[in-house]
Each structure stands twice: as structure tokens, then as C-alpha cells.
Design a protein that fits this description.
The complex is a heterodimer of chains A (665) and B (337).
Chain A: E1 2-6, E2 12-17, H1 30-33, E3 49-52, E4 55-58, H2 61-79, E5 84-87, H3 94-107, E6 113-114, H4 117-120, H5 122-131, E7 149-153, H6 157-160, H7 162-175, E8 178-182, H8 188-192, E9 195-197, H9 204-217, H10 223-229, E10 230-231, H11 233-240, H12 245-252, H13 256-268, E11 272-276, H14 278-281, H15 286-299, E12 309-312, H16 319-324, H17 341-351, H18 364-372, E13 378-382, H19 386-389, H20 393-402, E14 405-410, E15 422-425, E16 434-437, E17 442-446, H21 459-469, H22 480-490, E18 507-508, E19 532-533, E20 552-557, H23 573-578, E21 583-586, H24 588-593, E22 601-606, E23 609-617, E24 625-629, E25 642-645, E26 652-653, E27 657-663
Parallel strand pairs in A: 5-6, 5-13, 7-8, 7-11, 8-9, 10-19, 11-12, 13-14, 14-15, 20-24, 21-23
Antiparallel strand pairs in A: 1-2, 3-4, 3-15, 16-17, 17-18, 20-27, 22-23, 22-27, 25-26
Helix pairs in contact in A: 2-21, 3-21, 3-22, 5-15, 9-12, 9-13, 9-15, 12-13, 18-20
Chain B: E1 2-4, H1 6-15, E2 21-27, E3 33-36, E4 62-69, E5 72-74, E6 83-88, H2 90-104, H3 110-116, E7 120-126, E8 144-148, E9 153-157, H4 160-166, H5 177-194, H6 199-213, H7 219-227, H8 234-237, E10 245-251, E11 256-262, H9 283-302, H10 312-316, H11 323-334
Parallel strand pairs in B: 2-6, 6-7, 7-8
Antiparallel strand pairs in B: 1-9, 2-3, 4-5, 4-11, 8-9, 10-11
Helix pairs in contact in B: 6-9, 6-11, 7-9
The chains are: A alpha/beta (665), B alpha/beta (337).
């Protein structure tokens, strides 16, 4: 979507938007304009590091890789294959995610492989797979420009997916599409919305059930769609009957009229679309939230057509691809189940191995728990930073300290590498070839612009070398395109993908063969699973609600200028200048009552810990709710969050825990 | 004057590579046109203004402005060869003329002029715009101009350096009088087609400028506009007359380097003081500044509107509030009173 500008000395000096790409259209967000900056930062890791006498010291690649292989093998010999886990990365390419999961499964015989989609959209993958049969964005980004009504729920789209957000914004301002924002925070889109519903954090199921109650009781459902395309409607009807607007209004802290108006506006549109992100997924009832969105879309026939759909916005450059590649503990590529003997037999044949493991492995979150209680002994982390990204930092610290052996493969030292026995220097996106899959299921190329910094190596090369040294000979490739060819051979939804075919603007999966044009919209004439399955769910409150001691709800997330754990954007001049300090949003009313001035330092604490941050007094925050981004090492919001997981998806409840705040003066 | 095919232009430019660092419009793999050296992609003269502002050759997104080795401060090494940059539209050349003034008057920006001085600028104008549009011909503020007649390019030399280069053309046969007359009539026709005076858009900018200077645009207009701005910064970064930069230092093994990089007045940190106080701390104030600077402040300070209507911010703005669009709104809302 953009080109990198390389100076004559081989360093990156800028970016240039692609004016011809169907999505970019010559535009970039602020992070895009600064995407080059961290790549040549002097902090880049340039040599392998090995811990000697408690200190990470430079080592040769041979020494570091031999140590990695011998320690992982020794751990497995002593404690069994599942005593080792592998964290893949949504920031690396499809090919690298494929190779990481192949390494785990074929070479090390464990399904303990997962990545940070666990923390953002694992609820989506499972929730939409259960209802539609396919856990991805149903429509294309261009569909935003065709919708008559857009319900944005739990997504601060103009900040977190800015170019998608601007399409929604333009749909409202230029075409007059109806815009409904259901979000506790007064985000930018809310300023322009026809309806802004500020329901309490964690009450989405009740809210969505309330909408469906109104739609059914007023006869606004799409009867033909329900009749011909779905199943289990009677069960849905029964469950949502118990959610009249008056009752829902009580749960959600809004008025019954807001529910009725929202329901009428959404159901009244010919082409209505749901857009959601982590406000929906990051809850102990994340899968239930996703299913509720799917239920609403099916009830109103808002799926399978341009301008409609259930559209989870995936966050990282390749979080969709990392899931597609089977860097998940229960599936191979293309969501092929590890428990299915026929699927395992296919991969055994393709990979030249026997006895691929059939037991579902550990997730990112349960692996940390297993490390903390001593069951997991060794961990190989590629491009992830759990010390900053996972809930309850003190728990993560204890887990990493408990490990016998930790390998971290990354481009910078991070709080996680503090616990590493070996650090392997990888390259950034600018130094390698491969493919990424965007949120609209578009598989597209990333091209090498500069040579690797120092002795760093591409993740795929490192993984192949680890495989070779561990005695597995079927992970040797002349180029990355050969890896994609292998992926296409074993993955029906990627069957038609190759470097040649995706060269210019990519292709959207499913793309089963070399002639297939790709699929912009899913579920057009039938759902991937056949009939759409209504999956009614009951409202369950969040695990830790405010009380007298911790009277606020703490919700965590991201800000516009930083990316996740900040390792890259905090090393980008303009982005770091914009947000230099950890901060907490608080409403003007709450700030007044606690005598907290804007830009003053405060302590935010929960039952897990305390963090110092700068108060941002803003109308964006709802009374009683604090919001903190998690990018800042010096004020890590995840020291505060609760390690409570969705029972199915194992996603943490980042959006709700109980907190208190006091002035630091 | 000579009339050249693209192939002839290509070999002409190639012949200059021993003396100049030659940059031309090329087509990248997905069709995006960009400035590049020979080999970066096929020549793509036609298509109108490049999405990338060609002034970036003299004021790039990131640039070293000095190095510190031990206790010795060093200026960046001079260019090995002067730049020869092809691909300016008439509007781009007007922008370049303005930033030459900006960086040259009062305080001379040596880093800028280390690239700009001795550079050869080549305009591309005429019947080679996007979707068949005719591009305005220049006012002669470049060294050479390639004016497309719809089939081939008339090579027009404006400066002494340009004339010297034009004379190096392998086919140096002077045009016969009848041809010269033909060239003149083609040029005139192109001028008429492209509306050299600037047309409606220029009048629009002037009306918006007048309304701003007369303080006819109320705060509420900027507040509403700010709701539609996501601070992507594209408007500034694609603008050839935006000259603001931020400065940062980088320490490598053997030296410290001070860099500058394009900055944007749409960012909160642009004018935030160390105390946290910010004279431009509100979105509406920043949105107003972007437009007012070009249409209000610069006319007062420099005697000219500094939007030359290159069209880049209107193309790059993801929410449709580039300077032309905003001017149109200003005139529509406040122009009649």
C-alpha cells in the first residue's frame, strides 16, 4: 500500500503512498507516513545474544542456533513434546507464520503454537466460524462506501483503522449514510453519528439482544432471509424475548428509547453493515459478543451483499494471515482441524513426517499460565512482547522467570528479552520478501527494500535454520515464493495464490485455484457452513466490576499514534513526539470531583498493581470509566489488567476491570 | 525547439547521466508514477502531476543536516553530480519558485540549496495530463520544458543551462521557419486548452482568501471541519509549498547525526511547548491554520497565495477536505454575504 524511499546509503528516508492500489488510493494514515522511521534506528538488534552469567552477550549465529536447538530438544526429552511452546507473530509474513507452525508441528511435534490474535480477534475466529463457517471479515473495505447504515460497535475506527474509518466518515458526510456508533467513548465518529449509544463496557450482549428483541417485536426482521438462509431461529427468538428495552436499558445504562431507535434505524436500512473491533472481542464473553453481531446481521438479512456484512477489523499488518496460516493451536493452515485424522494425514504426507500431534495445544494466554505453574518449560517467541501485551504483567513476569529456557526473536530489545536466554536478531518488514493478508482477506506482497541491518536475518531464514539443525530436512527453500507455493498446495482457501498472481494488488481468499478471481464478499448465496446458524447467547457480566474500593471501570486499548507495545512507533520521531507519556483518560466530572487537573500525574491502581500516568481530562471518557493505552513501558497498562479469559477463545478481558485513581502530587 | 518521441527523450536523458544525477517519472510495479532513476521502472512522462511532489528532490522527507564526529561538526557531503529532475508541472514549478524564495530570502537554507543549486529542472506540460487533460504550460520558470503536443514532446529551453543541454541533442538540426511557426501555433493551442490563467479554481482560491482575510469565516466552520480531519498529515506532506520540518538526532557507532524530517501543523506536537502549553492545542485551530496559512498569512507575508493548485492535498486527503474542497465550502457558505 506504500513504497519505501531508500537513500543512496541504503537507509530508509521516507515513504510514498501507492496511488493505484485499490485500498490505499494514494492515501496513508499518520503511522503509514512514519512507517520507515524505526527501521534504521540505532537500537536495532544486529547480532545474536546469548545469556552468560546473567548478561546477554553477543554470540555467533552458530552458537546461538545450536544452543536453541539443543535446549529445546533437551527440554522435550526430559518433559515431553508439549513442554515447549512457540509464539508466532502477526507482524511477520504468511510464509514465516506457516514455517513457525510447521516447525512446531513437524519438527517439534507439538500443537503448542499460537500468536497474538489470541489477544485481539480469537473471539472473532471462533464466533464467526460457529455462526457463518468462516471467521473473517465478510465484506471488502470498499463496501463501506455502499452501505446505507453502518453500525460501528467497539471500534475507534478513525484512530485504529484510519483509512477504513475515513471511508465510513465519508459515507456519512458525502453520501448521507446513517451512522450509529455504539461505544462508551465519544470517539471521532461519534461526533458525526446519527446515534451515539454509550452503553456500559461489557454489556454488548444485552444491548444487541435488546436490538433484536425490538426488531422481532416490531416485525422488522428479514423474514425471507431468516427462512431460507438460516437455522435455529426459534431458539434466538426465545432468548431475545427476555431482553425488552426497559430491562436492557437498566443493564446498559442507557434509555429504552435509544435501543428502539437504534433497532429501527439498523433494520430499516436496505444495506446495513456492522463494523466491530476489540470493544467486542476483548471480553470474557468475547465469543458471545461476536455471535450476537452475527445474529443481528442474519436477522436483518444484512450479509452476503455489497454494503452489508459483519466486518471485524483486524489490527496488525498480518494478523489475518497469521490465523490463516494456522499459527493457532487447533488448526493447520486455512483452519483445517488438527483433530481430523484425514487432515493430519494430508499434512504428514506433504511434510514427510509421521504422527503429527492431534491434541489441541496451548494458547498464548494459557501457555503463560502453564509457564507460571511450571508445566511449560521452554518458550520460543517470534516478534511478540508478552511482558507488554498480555494481561497482568506481574503474572507474565512470574511465568517468564519460571521458564527453563526462553528464546526471543525480534528486531529490538524489549521488556520480554530481559528474561531471554537467547535473543535472535530478525529483520523488519523492509528487509525481506513475503506476503501479508489484510483485514479484507487480501493476500499481497511485501518487498525487500534494503539489506538486513547488521547480521540480522529474516525470520523465515532463521526458522528454516532451526529446523535444519534439529534434524528436520523438509524446511529448506530457495526463496519465499516457494513457501507460498507449498502453502497453496495444502490450503484450499489459498489454493490459487502465488507471487505472480498477487503481484500488483493481491487477491482475496477464498481463492481455491489458479483461475479463481478471489472473493470480495463471503456468504453471497450460502454461508460457508451451509445455513447460517443463529447462536443466541445470554448476557453475562464482566468478571471484575467496580466496587467501593475500586470504583472505576478501567478499559485499555490503543492511541492513534502508537502501535501495540510501542517498540517501533516509540522509536519513530513524530509519533513518539505526539504521545510521549503514558496517560489515562478521565471524564471532566470525575476529574473535578477527584481534583485531578488535566496533564497532571496520577496513579491508577487495580488489584494487580499500580501505574503512574498523566491524566487526560476529556469528554471522550464516560463518567466512571478510565481508558489507558498499553504502549508505554514506563507506565504499562497491562500491569493493571485482569487475567480473566473467555472460556472458549481464551481472550483476556482487557476492556473491563475495576480500578481507582489518585493524584500523584 | 525540437520535437521528440519518448524514446528520443529517454536516450537524451541517458546521455546526460555522466554529468547529472537524472531523475524522471517512472511507473512502479502497481502502476503508481513516481520519480526514479533509469532502471527503477519504465519512463512515465504522461499522466499529470506526480503523486509525489517533485520538490522532494531538494527537500526530502528525511535528510541529514549535520554530523558530529568527535568534536568536529560536518555539513553533509556535497552531491557527486548535480540533480536533473524531470516531471514538474507548471503548478509544481510555481511551488518550487516559492520555496526557493522561502529558503533563500532572509536566512539561506544551505542544506536545501546544496541540492537545489546547479540542479536542472524539467517541466512536463501540454497534452499529457490524466484522463486526456491538457496541462498548463509553464511561465518559463524551469530550465527545460517538454510540452506534449499529443504525440511527441516539444523541447523548449528556457534558461541558459537548459539551452546548452538542448543543443547537445544528437539531432541538433534547427527547425525550419515553417516548423517554428507550427510549434508556436501548437503552444498557443495548448495554452488555450489548459486555461493558463488558472481558471475557476484560481478564482475560487482568491475569493476564499479574501473571505479569510476579511475574517468572514467563523470558528464554528473550523470546528465542524476539524471533526472531519483525522490528522493523517497527508495534506502537509504532499504539499510542495509546505516547508516545515522537525529535527532529531541519531547516534550511530562512529558519529551523531542531526536530521530533519517533514512535519505537519495538523499534529498537536507541532507547536506544543515543553510545559505542555500549546498555542495550537485545539483541532479547530490547527485546521484553520492549514488553510489560513496558504490563503491568508502567506499573502500578507510573501505577497502571494501559496497554494498553486497542484491538487495533491485534495487527492491525498482521505476525508475530502483538501484546500480546494475547503475553499469551495468557504465560498459557498460565506461568499454571498
Amino acid at each position: 500500500m506504500f513504497f519505501l524511499v531508500v537513500g543512496d546509503d541504503g537507509r530508509l528516508v521516507g515513504v510514498e503512498p501507492s496511488s493505484e492500489h485499490v485500498v490505499a488510493q494514494g492515501r496513508l494514515c499518520v503511522k503509514g507516513w512514519n512507517a520507515h522511521h524505526f527501521v534504521n534506528h540505532p537500537d536495532r538488534l544486529t547480532r545474536p545474544l546469548v545469556r552468560r552469567n546473567g548478561t546477554l552477550e553477543p554470540a555467533s549465529w552458530d552458537e546461538a542456533l545450536d544452543l536453541v536447538v539443543s535446549r529445546l530438544q533437551a527440554t522435550q526429552a526430559a518433559h515431553g513434546p508439549d513442554s515447549v511452546a512457540f509464539f508466532s507473530s502477526a507482524k511477520t509474513t504468511n510464509e514465516e507464520n506457516y514455517l513457525m507452525m510447521k516447525l512446531a508441528r513437524a519438527a517439534f511435534k507439538t500443537n503448542n503454537v499460537d500468536h497474538c490474535a489470541r489477544l485481539c480477534h480469537s473471539s472473532t475466529v471462533l464466533g464467526l466460524a460457529a455462526t457463518f463457517g468462516s471467521g473473517a471479515m465478510t465484506n471488502s473495505i470498499s463496501c463501506m462506501e455502499q452501505a446505507d447504515c453502518i453500525l460501528v460497535i467497539g471500534s475507534n475506527t478513525t484512530e485504529q483503522h484510519p483509512l477504513i474509518g475515513t471511508r465510513i466518515l465519508q459515507s456519512k458526510t458525502k453520501r448521507g449514510a446513517k451512522l450509529i456508533v455504539a461505544d462508551n467513548r465519544k470517539i471521532r465518529l461519534a461526533r458525526l453519528a446519527d446515534l451515539h449509544v454509550r452503553h456500559k463496557n461489557g454489556t454488548d450482549v444485552a444491548f444487541l439482544n435488546g436490538l433484536m428483541h425490538v426488531i422481532i417485536s416490531e416485525g422488522l426482521e428479514d423474514k425471507e432471509f431468516v427462512q431460507t438462509r438460516t437455522e435455529n431461529y426459534d431458539q434466538l427468538k426465545k432468548v431475545v424475548a427476555e431482553y425488552p428495552p426497559e430491562k436492557v436499558a437498566q443493564i446498559c445504562g442507557i434509555t429504552p428509547d435509544e435501543i428502539v431507535q437504534t433497532a429501527r434505524m439498523f433494520a430499516g436500512a436496505d444495506k446495513a453493515m456492522i463494523v466491530y473491533s476489540m470493544g467486542i472481542t476483548q471480553h470474557t464473553h468475547g465469543v458471545d459478543n461476536v455471535k450476537s453481531c452475527a445474529n443481528l446481521a442474519m436477522l436483518t438479512g444484512s450479509i452476503g451483499r455489497p454494503g452489508t456484512g459483519v466486518n471485524p477489523l483486524r489490527g496488525q499488518n498480518n494478523v489475518q494471515g497469521a490465523c490463516d496460516m494456522g499459527a493457532l493451536p487447533n488448526v493447520f493452515t486455512g483452519y483445517q482441524n488438527v483433530a481430523d485424522p484425514a487432515i493430519r494425514a494430508k499434512f504428514e504426507k506433504a511434510w514427510g513426517v509421521q504422527n503429527l500431534p492431534d491434541k489441541v495445544g496451548l494458547t498464548v494466554t494459557t501457555a503463560i499460565d502453564a509457564a507460571a505453574d511450571g508445566h511449560l518449560k521452554a518458550l520460543y517467541i517470534m516478534g511478540e512482547n508478552p511482558m507488554m501485551s498480555d494481561p497482568d504483567q506481574n503474572h507474565v513476569r512470574k511465568a517468564l522467570e519460571h521458564l527453563d529456557f526462553l528464546v526471543v526473536q525480534d528486531i529490538f530489545l524489549t521488556p520480554t528479552t530481559e528474561f531471554a536466554d537467547v535473543v535472535l536478531p530478525a529483520v523488519s518488514y523492509a528487509e525481506k520478501d513475503g506476503t501479508f493478508t489484510s483485514t479484507e482477506r487480501r493476500v499481497q506482497r511485501v518487498r525487500k527494500a534494503i539489506e538486513p541491518v547488521g547480521e540480522s536475518r529474516a525470520d523465515w531464514e532463521i526458522l528454516c535454520e532451526v529446523a535444519r539443525r534439529s534434524g528436520y530436512g523438509r524446511m529448506q527453500y530457495g526463496s519465499v515464493s516457494e513457501v507460498l507455493d507449498e502453502i497453496a498446495g495444502v490450503t484450499p482457501i489459498y489454493g490459487g495464490m502465488s507471487f505472480d498472481r498477487i503481484d500488483q494488488v493481491g487477491l482475496q481468499w477464498p481463492c481455491p485455484d489458479k483461475q479463481h478471481p478471489g472473493t470480495p464478499i463471503l456468504h453471497t448465496s450460502k454461508f460457508t457452513r451451509g445455513l447460517g446458524a443463529f447462536s443466541p447467547v445470554e448476557y453475562r457480566p464482566s468478571v471484575e466490576l467496580p466496587d467501593d474500593e475500586y470504583p472505576f471501570v478501567l478499559s485499555t486499548g490503543r492511541c492513534y499514534f502508537h502501535f501495540h507495545t510501542g517498540t517501533m512507533t516509540r522509536r519513530s520521531q513524530l509519533l513518539n513526539r505526539e504521545e510521549r507519556f503514558p496517560y489515562v483518560e478521565i471524564s471532566p466530572k470525575d476529574a473535578r470531583s477527584l481534583k485531578i487537573p488535566d496533564r497532571s500525574w496520577v496513579y491508577v491502581s487495580t488489584r494487580r498493581g499500580e501505574v503512574k500516568a498523566m491524566a487526560r481530562v476529556t469528554e471522550v471518557a464516560h463518567d466512571g470509566v478510565l481508558f489507558m493505552p498499553f504502549h508505554f513501558e514506563e507506565g504499562p497498562a497491562n500491569r493493571l489488567t485482569i487475567n480473566a479469559l473467555d472460556p472458549v477463545a481464551k481472550i483476556p478481558e482487557y476492556k473491563v476491570c475495576a480500578a481507582k485513581i489518585r493524584s500523584a502530587r | 525547439m525540437k520535437r521528440l518521441t519518448e524514446a528520443q527523450i529517454q536516450s537524451f536523458l541517458q546521455s546526460l547521466e555522466s554529468r547529472y544525477d537524472v531523475w524522471v517519472p517512472v511507473r512502479l510495479h502497481d502502476g503508481t508514477r513516481s520519480l526514479g532513476r533509469r532502471g527503477d521502472g519504465p519512463l512515465a512522462l504522461a499522466g499529470g502531476a506526480l503523486p509525489q511532489k517533485p520538490t522532494c528532490m531538494f527537500f526530502p522527507q528525511m535528510d541529514v543536516i549535520l554530523s558530529l564526529k568527535g568534536k568536529k561538526i560536518e555539513a553533509p557531503a556535497p552531491l557527486e553530480k548535480p540533480l536533473l529532475v524531470v516531471g514538474f508541472t507548471a503548478e509544481d514549478l510555481d511551488c518550487l519558485a516559492f520555496i526557493d524564495r522561502f529558503y533563500g530570502e532572509n536566512f539561506r537554507d544551505t542544506v536545501y540549496f546544496s541540492k537545489r543549486e546547479n540542479a536542472i529542472t524539467v517541466g512536463v506540460t501540454g497534452r499529457c495530463g490524466k484522463e486526456g487533460r491538457t496541462l498548463k504550460v509553464s511561465t518559463g520558470n524551469c530550465d527545460l520544458e517538454l510540452v506534449c503536443d499529443g504525440h511527441r514532446y516539444l523541447l523548449v529551453a528556457h534558461s541558459a543551462a537548459g539551452k546548452a543541454l538542448a543543443n547537445r541533442l544528437a539531432d541538433s538540426r534547427e527547425a525550419r521557419p515553417v516548423e517554428t511557426q507550427d510549434f508556436a501555433s501548437v503552444l498557443n493551442a495548448i495554452k488555450v486548452e489548459s486555461g493558463t490563467a488558472g481558471g475557476d479554481d484560481q478564482a475560487l482560491l482568491e475569493r476564499a482568501s479574501k473571505l479569510l482575510l476579511e475574517d468572514k469565516v467563523p470558528d464554528v466552520f473550523w470546528e465542524n471541519l476539524a471533526d472531519r480531519c483525522i490528522a493523517c498529515t497527508s495534506c502537509n506532506l504532499v504539499c510542495p509549498t509546505c516547508t516545515c520540518f522537525d529535527v532529531f538526532d541519531r547516534k550511530d557507532d562512529d558519529q551523531d547525526q542531526r536530521w530533519r524530517m517533514w512535519d505537519s501543523c495538523q499534529l498537536d506536537g507541532f507547536m506544543r511547548e515543553a510545559s505542555g502549553h500549546n498555542p495550537m492545542g485545539k483541532e479547530a485551530v490547527r485546521t484553520r491554520r492549514r488553510i489560513f496559512h496558504k490563503l491568508g498569512a502567506d499573502p500578507r507575508r510573501w505577497g502571494q497565495i501559496t497554494c498553486m493548485l497542484c491538487g495533491r492535498c485534495d487527492d491525498a486527503c482521505p476525508t475530502g477536505i483538501g484546500i480546494k474542497a475547503v475553499s469551495r465550502e468557504i465560498v459557498a457558505k460565506y461568499g454571498s454575504s
